[in-house]
Each structure stands twice: as C-alpha cells, then as structure tokens.
Amino acid sequence: MSDKQYRTLANCNMRQEPAIGAAVAAVVQAGAIVHVDDTRSTDGWFRVQIVNGWISGELLEAIE
Which terminus has fewer CB within 10 Å in the chain: N or C? Predict the structure, then answer.
C-alpha cells in the first residue's frame, strides 16, 4: 500500500463507510492535508488515514 497526500477542497465529513448515508467519523477542514492509501471504493471514495474514515474523491486534490 502506498501513502499519498491530498488537500481537501472543502470542509468534509469523513464517513465510517464509503457512502453518503454512513455515519460521520470526523469533520476535516478545507485545505487540510490528508494521507490516502490505495484503498478506494468503486464509486470514488478514498480511505483517508486520520481516524480510519472515508472522504469522497470529489473533495480531494492530489499534491504532487
């Protein structure tokens, strides 16, 4: 598993599962740097390594 950095594009609800209806595990502020591993859902969610939750890929920007 690789570890990549992303920046959040907006305030994000980090969810316990990769779904809009899943419980919120934490709120991540816009501009936060998060670490993402290679685990992704089939509908565009990334597993973020903060408190073991998920953020939609639409709210993340890769950092080169």
Answer: C
